[in-house]
Task: structure prediction
Amino acid sequence: MENALSKISHVIKYWWVGVLLGILFLLLGIWVLQSPIESFVTFAIYFAITYIISGIGAIAFSISNREALDGWGWQLAGGILELVMGIALLANPGVSMVVLAFFVGFWLLFRGFATISIAVELKRDGGKNWGWILFSGILTMILAFMVLLNPLYAVSTLSIFIGISLIMAGVAQIMIGFQVRKVSKKVKEVL
Result:
C-alpha cells in the first residue's frame, strides 16, 4: 500500500503544471477573441510558441510519471505532436490560414480526446467535477470537427472557434490541475 501511495504522491507533486498550461490556453483564447484581425497575422507565431511550451511540458510530465500513470503514452504522444506542430508553424510563419486550420483542428481533436480520457479516469477514481471536464472535452472535439470539415469556412470564423476552444481547453486543464491538487492533499494526509 505504501508503494502505491508513494507513486501517487510522486505523480501529483507537479499538479500546478496543468494549471499553468490551462491559464496559458485561457489567456490565449481571450486574446484571440478580442483581437481577431491582429490574430490572423500572428496566429502562427503564438500558436507555435504555445505548442512548443505545451509539448515540452506534456513530454516532461509523461516521461517523469511513466511508471505511475496508466495512459502516459497518450500524454507523451500528445506532447510530441504539439512540439512537432509548434516547430513546423514557427519554421513557416507565412503558412496559409487553411493549413493553419488543419493544424489547429487536429490539435484540438487530440486535445479533446485526451481531455475526455482524463475525465473517464477521474470518474473511475472517484474524482469530482469529472462531468464538466468530459463536457469540455466533447465540446473541444465538436469544435475541432467543425474546423476540419470545412476549413475554408473555418478561415473566416477561425478566431471564434479557436478562441472558444482554447478557453474550453484552458478551463478543463485548470480543473484537472486542481483535482490533482485535491488528491495530493488527501495523499499527504494519509502519508
Q: What stands out?
A: The first helix runs from residue 2 to 11. The mean pLDDT is 80. The CA atoms of residues 86 and 99 lie 13 Å apart. The helical segments are 2-11, 15-34, 36-64, 72-91, 97-124, 130-149, 151-190.
